[in-house]
Amino acid sequence: MRALGEGLANDGRGGGLFKADKPTDTEARINVLALCDAVQSYRDEHGTYVVAGPTPKEVPRGGTPVPFPKEEPFQHIGFEPGEEVRFQYEVVVQESPVGEPEVSCLARGDFDGDGQNSVYRVRLDSNGMTTPVEVEHEGE
Predict the structure, then answer these.
(1) Span 79-102, average pLDDT
(2) What does the pLDDT read at residue 125?
């Protein structure tokens, strides 16, 4: 039987977080949905979509976490994925053929470090509804 707290690693920030042996895409799947929720909440309150990122500037490689810089667009919408991330995040706003905004919330990562990125995308429609997470090159 394990002792309480066994299997938790001290992350140096005053708490213990579970550290998986191998990085997973859970961060991207959760954060890309949270990012679109933040974008829609901002639009509901202010009447406009915010373009943000890509942040960090370079796509993290090899599953190694990198600092997530404090950038104004992400702060405005209230998106805070944590001090370190394994993915690059971005909000893209384009006009559809019928003149309505098309919003994509993206997460990019390269777990195996081969230069080919996994891309996680959630689309936000004009009614504020999100699509399921779409994944290209999963596991890259």
Answers:
(1) 92
(2) 84
Is the separation of the CB atoms in 86 and 60 below 8 Å?
yes
Judge contact between 125 and 25, C-beta under 8 A. Answer: no
Q: Are 69 and 81 in contact (CB under 8 A)?
A: no
| 1: exposed, middle or buried (Cβ count in 10 Å: 0-12, 13-18, 19+) | exposed
pLDDT digits (tens, 9 = 90+) for 6-46: 444 444 444 444 344 556 889 999 999 999 999 999 999 99
Strand partners, 17: 9
- Distance from C-alpha of 26 to C-alpha of 17, rounded to nearest angstrom: 14
Q: Tell me how far CA of residue 88 lies from CA of 43, 47, 74, 96, in angstroms.
A: 22, 26, 12, 25
Q: Which two tokens stand for residue 61?
A: 């490689």
Closest to 56 (Cα-Cα) out of 23, 34, 89, 24: 89
Tokens encoding 115: 């230069």
CA-closest candidate to residue 81, choices 139, 45, 32, 24: 32
CB 62 within 8 A of CB 112: yes
Q: How many CB atoms lie within 10 A of CB 11?
A: 13
